[in-house]
Amino acid sequence: MENKKNGFASGIGFVLSAAGSAIGLGNLWAFPYKAAKGGGAAFVLLYIICVLLIGVVTMLCEFHIGRRAAANPVTAYKRIHKNVGWFGLVGVAIPAFIICYYSVLGGYTVKYTLNSFTGNAGILPTFSTNVGEVILYTAIFAVLALVIIMGGVKDGIERMSKILMPLLFLILLGVAVYSLCLGDGVREGLNFYLNPDFSAVTFSTVLAAMGQAFFSLSLGMGTMISYGSYTGKEINTVKSTAMICIFDTLVALLAGLAVFPAVAHFDPSLLKDAQGVGLMFSILPEVFGSMGAVGQVVSFLFFAMVAIAALTSVVSLVEVVTQLILQRFRVSRRRAALGVTLVCFAVSIPVGISLGRVGIVGEAGISVFGMDLLTFFDEVTNTVLMPASAFFACLVIGWFIGPRDAMREMEDSGTRLGFLKKIFPAMVRFVTPALILVVEVGGVISKIRAGQWFVVVAAYALVGLAAAAYFLFFKKQETGTNADETL
Ligand code: PFF
To answer: CA 156 from chain center: how many Å?
Structure first.
């Protein structure tokens, strides 16, 4: 079978790799503070509803789009209809942008891991504005990802995920237990994180929960299409989807349990600022600093865990772009991966410089209408593009292929749908796309209201560019499949 040659070797390897993509900075860092600000347990509940109503269906669609074509997202969409291949190109363009800022943050986590025994408290303003150091650590992170991608899907991505994901989970569990056993302050920390406050839930909290679900599950970015394309009949995508969503949510919940009790125990006054870049790179190092000698070890383990999570996520982003380049231009995996890494690394340099200068210390520097480049890239991809791309996935399954045929194809390719059979058609045609539209329109309106219209303009310009590029350079050309990858 063509996709067997360079696909995932086992169901568990696939689940761990896709979970590796899903579990990242979004879980360990963004989820806890978004939950704390958005009504605690009320936000958690809302988040779980979003995962169930939007996440599960979209993930299933993306896996199936990839699997039925055993090819990159452009070919996969093109096989559904030749005029919608550009949906796939949008799906590949988004990761290309995310890599450029995700690697900068990945570089930060490498720095903080290695520096744990010297102490990270208070280093953020100096480190983030030290251009040489930021570039160095971003490069280290990018090279780690490159080495894994060059190994291929089975021997690189799958093998790495089978080792790193259990390790990540063990460390997280250990840190959470440690934090919950600290005694004084634990209750206060838990209260800060989870105390249900339904009055804090506004429409923008709902939007935040939906957006967080997309980002956290790596949806709407081609990655799950790409990973799905490397699966064969022996992998049940419904079971895998359920496991990935459960792992992802569990890790996000645990992350809050690891962070807030410790902050409240060592310095409750820090809780009020516990959000954004500051939470991970300024507040937590202070907390580790006040733990004494054990703090160095906890800091090392914690940041190593975050670095692992970021690495397995960035690998999935690089893989999507690499897959397209190698199949479309018929080059080797090594060349394609190297090219993608080099270009993204070059773009990540101004992003890193801008984050430090403009985003962290608040000086003048490279920015887009005053917004640092990392926030700009993040907003463009997450607020507007991601939901659009997830919408495309539901659209083609629900309306182009049709839910009945799609379900038959899924069952033919080894997936048992069980009770989903009853609800899938209505979900994929109406419920999920309608909710995604709410995220898209709500996101656009909130950006315009906040005076950040340039985010919206840039995002839709990118969609236009992707469509134009498709019709000019991809539609008539052969865009390749997984079988084109020579090992
Ligand atoms: N899901 C990752 C996180 O939560 O940090 C980020 C991510 C990885 C987004 C891969 C998108 C993607 F394709």
So the answer is: 19
